[in-house]
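Is this the right way to post structure tokens for a design question? Let me know if I should format differently. Anyway, here goes:
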């Protein structure tokens, strides 16, 4: 069975990448038109549709995403989604399943150019691009981002590991980014989100991709940011995510 999956992973990866890339190319001018002619709301809806299609493209790999949410996510308040990060395929399902809240990402500045659809959205949405080589720029950008989500009641997404983990075990969470955002958005709720098995899609690198992977995304209990001291908030958020992953991957402990 393993040999069979390895064999079919090559043609299926080609098919998947063809449609994935085609979607990015097709939706780039659609985004431009939506943003420049119909405004931000139309652009937002276009991005959601794009990411639903990108999420659906995983079916070409006989893979899928299961989204679990047993909690009521507060509405009309600032939200900060804190998640582990395993691959590029973490992003589209967030838009697809959390489109109602429209996630805005903390992303590295390099992604702000050169990628059809993705770069356009990062620049023209309410996302924030940070330069990891410029500490001052990063701090100012995150603080401004926090003020913006507080004022406009937006939803932000931050990956506190700093870089993608290549196994089911997350890297240690860094607190600085979240700390600055919470400071500037004191009325926000922090939403822990655990992502499992996304890393298996790219276990062998960009090609071939994994086949028959079941990716799970789970929303955990929202935490009112100003209800507990920040060190406790950070610890609770990280523990919820890591405990959820440990339950699904007990041998990785």
């Amino acid at each position: 069975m393993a040999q069979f999956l390895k064999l079919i992973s090559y043609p299926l990866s080609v098919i998947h990448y063809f449609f994935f890339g085609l979607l990015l190319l097709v939706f780039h001018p659609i985004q431009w038109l939506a943003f420049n002619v119909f405004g931000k709301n139309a652009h937002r809806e276009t991005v959601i549709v794009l990411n639903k299609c990108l999420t659906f493209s995983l079916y070409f790999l006989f893979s899928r995403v299961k989204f679990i949410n047993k909690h009521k996510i507060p509405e009309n308040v600032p939200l900060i989604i804190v998640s582990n990060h395993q691959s590029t395929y973490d992003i589209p399902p967030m838009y697809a399943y959390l489109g109602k809240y429209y996630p805005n990402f903390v992303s590295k500045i390099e992604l702000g150019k050169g990628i059809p659809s993705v770069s356009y959205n990062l620049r023209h949405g309410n996302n924030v691009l940070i330069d990891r080589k410029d500490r001052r720029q990063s701090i100012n950008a995150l603080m401004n981002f926090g003020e913006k989500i507080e004022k406009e009641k937006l939803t932000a997404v931050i990956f506190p590991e700093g870089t993608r983990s290549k196994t089911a075990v997350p890297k240690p969470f860094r607190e600085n980014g979240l700390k600055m955002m919470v400071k500037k958005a004191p009325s926000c709720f922090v939403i822990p989100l655990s992502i499992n098995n996304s890393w298996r899609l790219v276990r062998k690198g960009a090609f071939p991709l994994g086949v028959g992977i079941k990716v799970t995304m789970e929303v955990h209990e929202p935490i009112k940011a100003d209800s507990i001291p920040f060190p406790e908030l950070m610890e609770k958020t990280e523990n919820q995510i890591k405990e959820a992953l440990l339950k699904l991957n007990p041998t990785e402990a």
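Format looks fine. Someone answered above. Worth noting: The chain is about 45% helix and 15% strand. The chain has a mean pLDDT of 93.
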